[in-house]
Amino acid sequence: MEPATVVRWHRQGFKLYWSWKSRKKLGRPKIDAEVRSLIRRMWQENPTWGAPRIQSELLLLGHNVAESTVNKYMVRQPKPPSPTWRTFLENHVGQIVAIDFFTVATITFRVFYVFLVLRHDRRRIVHLNVTTNPTAQWAAQQIVEAFPFEETPRFLRRDRDGIYGEYFRDRVGHMGIEKVLIAPRAPWQNPY
Predict the structure, then answer these.
(1) Which end of the chain has a smaller Cβ tally under 10 Å, C or N?
(2) Whole-angstrom distance, CA of residue 96 vs CA of residue 12
(3) What CA–CA distance (Å, rounded) separates 176 from 57?
(4) What residues have CB less than 8 Å from 1, skipping those under 6 apart?
(5) Residue range 117-146: average pLDDT?
């Protein structure tokens, strides 16, 4: 007798044992189609009733079902979808500016950081400045210079860069501008 044969017999026996062991139907018993349609009808005719109320009414009619079962068979109305980024942009495009940094390497291997402020409604550059050492104070000053005469936008879209530190957030908040952070690793949310 080969060892592979013994292993095969053992596996077949194990399979047969568990097939025999699990032949019983487990779980809750099936709910009759009549009770399911009754739950749906009660829900549609009484939309303010919740699952506990329908369960108690079914109990008065002689049908003993769990509240979770009633909840499962209630017909739910779909919720309206929540607003998307696109909806936000369309509704507030005239009140949104976006800011971002990008880098430029020179031929002498120096790196310049370019700060850009862009209006979304016309995709117009409002402010642009360059530095070799960006800080939160410097970035906040650029926002002040971009909107000097009470022309502040309502929303400021930006990424989650560490350069926008506490000083930057406080300064922009005192100007009455709401920040709108894009999701992590989602550059498509700031497409311009």
Answers:
(1) N
(2) 68
(3) 55
(4) none
(5) 91
